[in-house]
Write a structure and sequence with these properties.
The complex is a heterodimer of chains A (about 140) and B (about 800).
Chain A: H1 6-29, H2 37-54, H3 57-63, H4 68-88, E1 98-103, E2 107-112, H5 114-137
Antiparallel strand pairs in A: 1-2
Chain B: H1 3-24, H2 30-46, H3 49-53, E1 58-65, E2 70-76, H4 78-101, H5 109-128, H6 132-150, H7 157-188, H8 193-198, H9 200-203, H10 209-223, H11 232-235, H12 241-250, H13 255-267, H14 271-293, H15 298-320, H16 336-367, H17 383-397, H18 403-419, H19 426-429, H20 432-456, H21 474-492, H22 494-509, H23 531-548, H24 550-557, H25 566-588, H26 593-614, H27 630-645, H28 652-672, H29 676-696, H30 710-736, H31 744-748, H32 750-754, H33 759-767, H34 769-791, H35 800-803
Helix pairs in contact in B: 1-2, 1-5, 2-4, 2-5, 4-5, 4-12, 4-16, 4-21, 4-22, 5-6, 6-7, 7-10, 10-13, 10-14, 12-16, 13-15, 14-15, 14-20, 15-16, 15-18, 15-20, 16-17, 16-18, 16-21, 16-22, 17-20, 17-21, 18-20, 18-21, 18-23, 20-23, 21-22, 26-30, 27-28, 28-29, 33-34
The chains are: A mainly alpha (about 140), B mainly alpha (about 800).
Membrane topology (chain A): Multi-pass membrane protein
Family (chain A): Belongs to the CPA3 antiporters (TC 2.A.63) subunit B family.
Organism (chain A): Domibacillus enclensis
Chain lengths: ~140, ~800
């Protein structure tokens, strides 16, 4: 399968960045528009999967030295811990809050704690998807 | 959160940080870090003594899950205070002792102290909780930490066996107790123990009252090693000796006694309660001491002795509960003496048994064996240890001038009082109590003497010992010296103990008698030549004769052969359970994927389809449907063609791609129905799954033609058609059934409530964040599962099961 993948490799080098950007956009857009942690995470992980498909596992691992199992665990931990955060302020577990700030360059901006929670979701999804894909393909 | 809440959580948090201390200060023996926790806790709880003694109680509650009536509620009264002082006081001494007992080089101290502190927190939780469910949580946590500590030397087969046994029995009892608690909740409508106590009069009539009582008692009996559940305690002696001293004599096994004491105001006065608690207790007392005499291992002897002493205290709680029959009167106040004796002996037992375990640990540590057949003549080498052993075991035997004498005399008083009772048909059976108690005490005297004299006196046989014995280091002696000091101190000043600790506890166990005259007896060492003293003298004389003629007694023990013991019954149950479940499992775990799918879909069809049919909810109401457009029909046709095509394809690749067609078409539907979030998710998920499918093909064998026989294909066809039909029916019926009002209006406020205009994500991340969080956790577990299954295979031939 690996004989004629020059085109695939060249295209993916560019496409991966487009997908990654799109994934980050989806993640950030989720509060008001379609997107969010789960779908953002999935899109990001599909970029990684594309890399793994067009190059071999060793090359990608050398380029992006990430332990995806730890990434997944970190994500889950973040999601759970942000829920605990609200306990410190006397609210129920997993209460989210938001506020508007005037930031330079951005102007009036809404900052919400749900972003942290969603970041955990996204990291968890990326970690799990890539772990599954690489552990299955690693057997080939 | 009040201070007491933090006191409960402190050891549990410390357990998490202890391993870090080991990394930070590698030269330090971790015990020095761990000991600060119980000492701090002890001083905090001591500071509550004056207030409690003057009649205060401390209650506080932190809301946890309102809907389940689950609150982190605590209640510190006299009864809890005794236990907290025992837990933290003995805990400090045990940790101090363990610093010299546990070698820093050889043992994994981080684990040891983490488990020990975890246990300490759990135990504090048990005695301080006012909420049934929280109490249960901590209760099971003590079982878990006990399991971990018994199996601390997990390379030994016996340790693992003992840990499993104690876990199965105590957790089994715990579950029964949970059911009892739920029944209590059903009866009273509250989880608060204090509220249940307040409404005790209304509960008696309820039909669940006696079942709840029995179930809760099973929990208490298993934990406190009462007959016939006592069999786990001797095996638990595989734990390191500090653990045995702490968990299996001074604290955890007393949790059952605590539970009985705590629920005496609720169940006391009920005949079932009286007979079960006192009867099981007194028999356990006899059986434990009877079995202790024949033991050859010092720790096993102490284990049976603990069983016996726990039985003694249990029977006293049972006898004392008679005082709650009818109202509080000057007559029935006589019976409360049993409860007082129980509390007094509970404290005394912790002092002398804690000391004895530490002494046996010293002998084991310095001599290298605890086998009575090898020991002897150690007095010349270990004079201090010998003196301590004399003090603590004479106290256990009930001799003056030690605290055991006082409580043993009160025990005799209580059983003699029981003989005079005129309720619960005690006129007929009452005489049994003093007789059994007396016989049990003779055995107690006998094994106490065996413990001291066989170990420290008699011939010294160097050739049987592994090393030359010598006196223990001072650090190991401090804790037993303190405990022995207490033994003597309590003998001379029992009324101070009674005033500060026992009388507040009496008030909380017997609320109807609170502060009544005659409730708190004056304890005096000399009370004239009465029957109790004569009984004690009789015990000493007959006991001494028994020890001298022990040889002949062993004939009696031959009547109880090993293969007819309760222990072998337990082993038979265990192996029969394994055999049975193995047979049952291998019957349906055939290894054929299609069979598993039949089970899953069969149940789904049966349950969901059955519910649909029986509840008559198949209502198809097309009136509210939107008009169907042409392009929708086209997509449906494409999907149908792809789906029908899959079973007829010749290669896996085609099947996977056709499956992909299905998935992408659904995404198009989502777009058409204006659900961009869903469409996006569906697209990406479909892409990733298709990739996964393609990757998996490398592992699969060639796609061979299946069996074409009707017998194989017909069930498949039926299940597929059934599932398809069911799904369509459900989808259509959902529209026709409006069981409740739509909740969508709530989510329309997402911008005001959650600051987000994307309703879907506001639901996911804010309104229903708990679901999302758990979904991520489930996803993670699934990922780890796939990873372990795929990559962590044992190399060929190394898997035990493969060789079979």
């Amino acid at each position: 399968m690996r004989e004629n993948d020059v085109i695939l490799q060249t295209v993916s080098k560019i496409a991966v960045f487009i997908i990654l950007t799109f994934g980050v956009y989806l993640f950030l857009a989720g509060h008001h528009h379609p997107g969010g942690g789960f779908i953002g995470g999935l899109t990001l992980s599909s970029a990684f999967v594309l890399l793994y498909l067009s190059f071999d596992v060793e090359t990608v691992n050398a380029g992006i030295p990430l332990d995806y199992r730890k990434l997944a665990a970190t994500g889950v931990l973040i999601s759970v811990c942000t829920g605990m955060g609200s306990l410190l302020f006397g609210s129920a577990f997993l209460s989210q809050t938001f506020a508007y700030f005037n930031l330079p360059l951005f102007g009036k901006t809404e900052l919400a704690t749900v972003v942290l929670f969603e970041a955990g979701v996204a990291l968890g999804v990326i970690g799990v998807v890539v772990t599954i894909i690489t552990s299955i393909s690693g057997e080939v | 959160m009040t201070l007491i809440h933090y006191l409960i959580l402190m050891p549990i948090l410390a357990a998490a940080f202890i391993p870090l201390l080991g990394v930070g200060a590698p030269k330090l023996h971790l015990g020095w870090g761990a000991i600060t926790v119980p000492i701090l806790l002890f001083s905090f709880f001591v500071s509550y003594v004056p207030a409690i003694a003057s009649g205060d109680v401390f209650s506080a509650s932190v809301a946890w899950m309102q809907a389940l009536d689950l609150h982190f509620a605590i209640h510190l009264d006299g009864l809890s205070l005794i236990f907290t002082l025992l837990i933290t006081g003995i805990g400090s001494l045990v940790v101090l002792y363990s610093i010299f007992y546990m070698s820093k080089e050889r043992e994994s101290l981080a684990h040891f102290y983490a488990y020990l502190l975890l246990f300490m927190g759990a135990m504090l939780g048990v005695v301080l909780s006012d909420n049934l469910m929280v109490l249960y949580l901590f209760w099971e946590l003590t079982s878990v930490s006990s399991f971990l500590l018994i199996a601390f030397w997990f390379r030994r087969k016996n340790s693992r066996y003992g840990a499993q046994k104690s876990f199965l029995i105590t957790v089994g009892g715990g579950i029964s107790m949970l059911v009892g608690f739920i029944m209590l909740h059903v009866m009273s409508g509250t989880n608060s123990i204090q509220e249940i106590i307040a409404m005790r009069d209304t509960l008696h009539e309820h039909s669940l009252f006696v079942p709840a009582l029995v179930l809760i008692l099973i929990g208490a009996f298993t934990k406190s090693a009462q007959f016939p559940f006592h069999i786990w305690l001797p095996d638990a002696m595989e734990a390191p000796t500090p653990v045995s001293a702490y968990l299996h004599s001074a604290t955890m096994v007393k949790a059952g006694l605590f539970l009985v004491a705590r629920f005496t105001p609720v169940f006391g006065g009920e005949a079932t309660w009286f007979w079960l608690v006192s009867g099981v207790g007194i028999f356990t007392m006899f059986w434990g001491s009877f079995s202790a005499v024949k033991q050859k291992d010092l720790k096993a002897l102490l284990a049976y002795s603990t069983i016996s002493q726990l039985g003694l205290i249990m029977s006293l709680f049972g006898l004392g509960s008679a005082a709650l029959q009818g109202g509080a009167s000057t007559e029935s106040v006589l019976y409360t003496k049993a409860i007082f004796a129980a509390l007094f002996h509970l404290v005394n037992h912790s002092t002398f048994k804690g000391a004895l375990f530490m002494i046996v640990g010293i002998v084991d540590h310095e001599v290298g064996t605890r086998d009575l057949r090898k020991l002897g003549g150690l007095i010349a080498f270990m004079p201090v240890t010998f003196s301590l052993a004399v003090i603590s075991s004479f106290s256990m035997a009930g001799l003056p001038p030690f605290n055991g004498f006082l409580s043993k005399e009160m025990f005799f008083t209580a059983v003699l009082n029981a003989n005079q009772m005129t309720l619960f048909s005690m006129e007929t059976w009452g005489l049994l109590f003093p007789i059994v108690a007396w016989i049990g005490s003779v055995f107690t005297f006998a094994y106490s003497m065996i413990l001291v004299f066989r170990t420290f006196l008699g011939p010294y046989r160097r050739e049987k010992l592994e090393k030359t014995p010598h006196e223990a280091p001072i650090g190991m002696l401090i804790s037993p010296i303190i405990l022995c000091g207490l033994i003597v101190l309590v003998f001379f000043m029992p009324n101070q103990l009674s005033h500060y600790l026992l009388s507040p506890a009496m008030n909380s166990i017997l609320p109807t008698y609170a502060n009544m005259d005659g409730l708190i007896p004056h304890i005096s060492a000399w009370h004239g030549f009465n029957l109790e003293l004569l009984m004690t003298i009789g015990v000493a004389v007959i006991g001494a004769v028994a020890v001298k003629t022990l040889r002949y007694w062993y004939l009696v023990y031959d009547f109880f052969p090993e293969h007819r013991s309760i222990d072998s019954g337990y082993r038979w149950m265990l192996s029969a359970g394994e055999r049975l479940s193995h047979q049952a499992t291998s019957r349906y775990m055939t290894g054929f994927l299609r069979h598993y799918l039949y089970y899953i879909y069969g149940f789904l069809l049966l349950i969901t389809g059955g519910t649909l049919l029986l509840s008559g909810s198949i209502i198809i109401d097309p009136s509210g449907d939107a008009p169907v457009a042409v392009y929708e029909v086209i997509i449906v046709l494409v999907m149908a063609a792809a789906a029908i095509g899959i079973p007829f394809t010749k290669s896996r690749m085609t099947a996977a791609l056709l499956n992909g067609v299905l998935g992408y078409s659904i995404a198009i539907f989502f777009v058409l129905f204006r659900a961009p979030d869903l469409a996006l998710t569906q697209l990406v998920v479909e892409t990733v799954t298709t990739v996964l499918f393609l990757l998996c093909f490398h592992h699969l064998p060639e796609w061979s033609r299946e069996e074409r026989s009707l017998k194989v294909r017909l069930p498949k066809l039926l299940v597929s058609i059934g599932m398809g039909a069911l799904t369509v029916l459900i989808a259509l019926s959902v529209q026709g059934n409006r069981l409740f009002d739509s909740i969508s209006s709530y989510f329309e406020d997402s911008y005001d409530l959650a600051g987000g205009r994307n309703i879907v994500n506001s639901i996911l991340g804010d309104f229903r964040a708990f679901d999302t969080m758990l979904e991520v956790v489930v996803l993670f577990i699934a990922g780890i599962g796939v990873y372990t299954l795929v990559t962590l295979k044992a190399p060929k031939g190394e898997d035990e099961r493969e060789r079979e």
